[in-house]
Amino acid sequence: MVAKLFKEVEEEATDLLSDLIRINTTNPPGNETEAAKYLAKNMENEGFKCELFQSAPGRGSVITRLKGSGQKPNLLLLSHLDVVAANPKEWSVDPFAGIVKDGFVWGRGALDMKSMTAIEVMVMKLLKRNNLKLKGDVILAATADEEKGGEAGAGWLVRNHPEKVRTDYVINEGGGLAMPINGKNLFTIQTAEKGILWFKVKAKGSPGHGSVPGAADNAIMRMNRVVERLGNHRAKMMLVPAVKQFLGEVAKENKLLQQGVSLLLANPEAGDQILDMLAQTEKAMAEEVRAMLRMTITPTVIHGGVKENIIPSECEAVFDCRILPRQNPTEAMKEIKDLIRDIGLEKLEFETIQANEPSESSAETPLYEKIVSVLKEFEPGCATTPILLTGGTDSRFFRRIGSICYGFQPQRADMPYGEMLKTIHGIDERISVENLVFGTSVLYSIMEQFMT
Ligand SMILES: [Zn+2]
After folding, report:
1. What pLDDT digit, counting tens, does each position of 406-439 carry?
2. CB within 5 A of ion ligand 1: which residues?
3. Which residues contact 273 (CB under 8 A, 6 or more apart)?
4. 20 to 30 Å CA-CA from 71: which of 3, 101, 232, 304?
5. Distance from residue 350's CA to the centre of ligand 1 (Å)
């Protein structure tokens, strides 16, 4: 028998999401306190005790807890309240009006990630309404600042109030979206994410007149070599467990990819050749996989020079480097310096802007198994796979204190996969009402079976 969806939550979940979208929490500045207060009031109306924490004025996070009987495990339902900016001129609806049309809730945060906040709140309410006898505590935390790195939200909570948020398991954003492959849904569960190393390089030279280039030492020319070298660098490929399993699952479902993937798994050193081949027909997929297999270094900002006829003595560039689980920022920086040693390290200055460790959780846990089995109750033919996120989420703060974290907002693919991804941080972000119901139903069932 296929598990039944909780149609009865449709209106409530939709209203909750619309209301959250209407509270503009664009970060910067964030202004999450208003959303945190709204949630606190909404839940207190139903007898929850909520706590509001502010890392700074306006930067609010809200926490509430359903007490269990004191047994293990306990679990945190995590989400962030802030969103990235939206330019109303580019949208076909007002991004902060929370409009419902054509079966979708439209607005900034509809996917990333106020829908998950609404779903998690619904799950908490249902657990309470149905008076479930929980083993461990279930905590809900909706936090500030994820879109700017989380230091004023989840990071701040973990540092200042660890007793409020430390749990065995965390469910957060970063996975859950089904990839339709061969008419079958492949649900992703984020078990790992890359780390960040943002750094600045300043190239030094000596100034001179633009009409006599040979007499000066042009810092732009030096930086040009650095950018060329780092931007084109193909670091050693590494297959972390999440990526290995992901590729295996994709290959099972798609004949076109099957050959390439089995070649890749058998021979990771030839990875780029294989991916170049794959890129001829499946460009987006091939490049996504390439980024899952190695450290990447992307030049993102460059500044140099002051006037038409002055040879510049300084040029600065910023690089966005992403490292794999089991790599670390210090070693990555060493590797980067080695790559450009011959360009003259004495004329290059390095500054780390931000460094976040990569993080991963095992996919061999009772919760992971439960997620898989509940998904199959709702969709018997579906496939599941762990994934590595090439970006980052707040999960890293919790993995650092020993929690097992999964990115899992269950969603069926009811828009073309690529199109849906493009709306996140893009235009016309929206989620179907059906996916609000599906997400609530699946997540509640996991809680019901795993926490009682
Ligand atoms: Zn997000």
Report:
1. 999 999 988 887 788 889 999 999 999 999 999 9
2. 112-113, 173
3. none
4. 3
5. 30
Tokens read off for 393: 């989420």
Q: Which contacts of 422-427 are long-range, i.e. CB under 8 A and separated by 24 or more positions?
A: 423/110, 423/111, 424/111, 424/112, 425/84, 425/112, 427/86, 427/87, 427/90, 427/91, 427/92
**Cα–Cα distance, 447 to 452 (Å, whole number):** 8
pTM: 0.92
Q: 143 CA distance to ligand 1 centroid (A)?
A: 11
The alpha carbon of 229 and the centre of ligand 1 are apart by a number of angstroms equal to 32
Give the Å distance between the CA of 71 and the centre of ligand 1: 31
Distances (CA, A) of 411 to 97, 408, 434, 438: 23, 9, 9, 7
Residue 244 amino acid letter: K
Kindly give the distance from the C-alpha atom of residue 84 to the centroid of ligand 1, in angstroms, as a whole number: 9
Ligand 1 midpoint to CA 82 (Å)? 8
Instruction: Compute the distance from residue 218 Cα to the ligand 1 centre, in Å.
Output: 42
What's the CA-to-centroid distance between 146 and ligand 1, angstroms? 7
Supply angle C-alpha 386, 145, 93, rounded to 5.
85
If we measure between CA atoms, which residue out of 397, 396, 393, 425 comes closest to residue 409? Answer: 393
